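Researcher: We're teaching a course module on how sequence relates to structure. For the next exercise, students receive a sequence and then see the predicted structure as tokens, so they can try to spot secondary structure elements on their own. Here is the exercise chain.
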Amino acid sequence: MARALELARRAEAEGEVPVGAVLVRSGVAIGEGWNRPIATCDPTAHAEIQALRAAGALERNYRLPGTTLYVTLEPCPMCAGALVHARIARLVYATPDPRTGAAGSLIQLLDHPGLNHRVQVEQGPYREEAARLLRDFFRARRARRSTGDGQPPADSVT
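Model: And here is the predicted structure for the students to work with:
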């Protein structure tokens, strides 16, 4: 989870929402990612998806059984669905997301009886650090917007 926090800080440095993820098998990281939807103009470029893509390329397989995903924020429904499709065994997240969390906070997709795979879910270490990173990021962003410094250019799509 410490590495996932480092990746979240990298996302923040790039102006992205600070979320990082690391996919591990047998104690070895096989994929990692950080939020990049703004930089890539890709709404699916969440940290979890980036980690799954990297691991899939390394493993040359879209199925990643026997792995654990460590992520700093509880996954959204899109990412939770990707974890199910990839056959991830276990998810450990640092801080819950009461607005969009799909691992129990808002909805529970990872243990849904209608799906053909279940992901074991744990809330792990670094809850306060991950929550503080997100709070500080959004507080700073709101402050920039209130002073006019954080506004997108007039020709950009929001």
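Model: If you want an answer key for the exercise: Residues 127-147 form the longest helix (21 residues). The radius of gyration is 16 Å.
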